[in-house]
Queue: 2 jobs
Job 1
Amino acid sequence: MSRSEGQAREAASGYRKGEAARARILEAALAAFGAGGFKGATTRQIADEAGVNLPALKYYFGGKEGLYLACAEEIVERYRARMVAPILQAQAMLEAREAPETARQALKIVFRALAGQMVETREAEAWAGFVLREIAEPGPAFAILYEQVWQPGVNIVGYMIGLAGGLSAGAAQMEALLMISSLSAFGAARPVSLKYLGWDDVSGERFERVMGNLERRIDELGS
Amino acid sequence: MSRSEGQAREAASGYRKGEAARARILEAALAAFGAGGFKGATTRQIADEAGVNLPALKYYFGGKEGLYLACAEEIVERYRARMVAPILQAQAMLEAREAPETARQALKIVFRALAGQMVETREAEAWAGFVLREIAEPGPAFAILYEQVWQPGVNIVGYMIGLAGGLSAGAAQMEALLMISSLSAFGAARPVSLKYLGWDDVSGERFERVMGNLERRIDELGS
DNA sequence: GCCAAACTGTATCGCTTGATAGCATTTTAC
DNA sequence: GTAAAATGCTATCAAGCGATACAGTTTGGC
């Protein structure tokens, strides 16, 4: 082991060259794991797609499993980057006024961000595939995704649904699970939904149609 | 090729011995493919689980891919067996009286059956895994599942939602997609939801809590 | 310039996979 | 009973897999 272990290489001040390669590998791995799952993706295919050779994967991530875990962490980071601002905004609104109407407005903000993450972006396809496979058959990345993405997401949505009124705490939790899962229509089940609707993507006006249905359901929470 | 091609062996009048082996293989394959996807499942593991030897898979199904397609057809058949009666009942109700209230009652019947299929049974875990993997990344079985399960299911639910009132045809379709997808909370995403709720299954009283939320949303369709 | 560390490339190992060849055994028809 | 078809098993192949030994090349600090 004359060279570094290659694993925890973050704060290296110099030698910036490899960061690009590392990023390309991660991008290719996200797409490959998302499409085929852990066993379905091959290291050769990922290396090829990233334009590097096979030992580079070991060099940068220690191996296939390390690369897989790095993908999970990358997903968490991208989720955070997109959700932090809307969630802070929603929390600020609720601190100012805890009325049901405020809760519904806050819910719409959070759900718009959530739906954007799961539905709108093209990278979302890989994202959804990765998360869903890991969730359906818990593996090494399950804990990361559950604790960093799913649990806090359901928590905050359930809390807001409770504030919106009309439901007990338990029913609000259940409602949060069901509402968030309904987004999988355009997440994991996107190919089916697109084919059914005759769409080829979920861009601007179409995204608004999805959001329109979600917002109507949020409004109905007050009844 | 001194023996038969082994593929289309359906109407053979005699030689009933192998049917049991065939069924065991199919059962093991459903579980294996559902858990790990096409590449994740190995033929050895399936043969082992079914208590047969490796060449038996080729003998009965022609190979791994043939076995995979046979699984898709088996799923369609089980889906049909469970859904035919409730759908006929719902249609009969709607032929008698096309009132919004009737449509909501019919929807509850259909959704109870749908939820039972996706949520309640233990085999549903493999079922959900298989369908969802195939849907997320369309493969050879996509057409079968789409045309025989997804499309007719969304169609009938969307039709009933339209009758329930308050929504345009397009919005009703969208609502059908979102409502059916919300069941994935206890289908594909079951491990997450169970962990979040602290449940270990979705049996009687818990199943009713899920249905309670779904039925409340169906009732709200009338507003 | 020069050395060490960071990066890249070639070649190959050991293993598992799906498939199948070839033979033994069981079942059915007559 | 007996022949033929159906079914089951052992052994093995070729291909693809993840991993890595090892050497070469680039980069940055001094």
Note: The two ends of chain A are 66 Å apart (CA to CA).
Job 2
Amino acid sequence: MDLIDKKILYLLQSNARMSNANIAREIKLAPSVTLSRVRKLEEQGIITGYEAKLNHHELGLDMLAFVLIQVTGDKDIESLLIAIPGVQEVHNVAGDDCYLIKIRTRNTESLSKLLKEKVRGESISTKTIIVLTTLKETSKLTF
Amino acid sequence: MDLIDKKILYLLQSNARMSNANIAREIKLAPSVTLSRVRKLEEQGIITGYEAKLNHHELGLDMLAFVLIQVTGDKDIESLLIAIPGVQEVHNVAGDDCYLIKIRTRNTESLSKLLKEKVRGESISTKTIIVLTTLKETSKLTF
DNA sequence: CAGAAAACAGAATAAAATTCTATTATTAAG
DNA sequence: CTTAATAATAGAATTTTATTCTGTTTTCTG
């Protein structure tokens, strides 16, 4: 990975739908070479995918919350958490057999209902962090 | 927004670089119509962007942490937090003038150094949640 | 310095994006 | 129910892009 690859990654992180021709113009290389570099980054697993980002508000998902979930060591709650609609992230975190999930719902009611129905029964305790406003939210990385 | 638009959003969330021609084939509409629908979704602000997702491991960013930061009401810590390299999310959360950030670093040392140098001085307290393994991480939404 | 490997540019062609026009629904008003 | 207006669509034409191929240049290695 050289400077050119880093520029490509920067561009594709900013706009994943940028055409190969435009990337080529930006980095001042021929389209053929540019394409093979992008393909290589994909094959090497450095680029893992391309996602469209949607406006949660417009989709009626106004609620964002992080929930810390403590479980007993023997429960398999992982596949359950992953499958919950609205759950965008599931992390296993250090200390006390804990999971941290990031979840989007329509409102506080739908969140509370979801936690009650799907999570509470499988966990020792939950601690919910309600997001009021989001100031930054991206998967972009600088390196 | 009808069912066709939802299909388009589903496809672009799965692969933002899918060609318009392929989207058209999937939803069984002419490319011209498909393109105008995608453009409309962009103009309406329903699609807010397209991001390439990168492999953190490959980029040497093995550490992921969430940090809860408590501040006094009068401090402007927001622009500071947003500008920290590796910070992917900054949320203002309910209760006790708190921020929650999601941050990627090279290792525990670089995390601790970052918090010490940039955050501690501006905050009353910080609470760091270290991620051991990530089971799911996407911005994809089903609706 | 010589040879091999990788990276590159540029041309050719296949495919896609984009625009345009005409046709077909859909909707709203009378 | 009919008609006019609006929106959605298909399909053709054209521009642009993606992709492959060939030959050259550069870079690395011994």
Note: The radius of gyration of chain A is 20 Å.
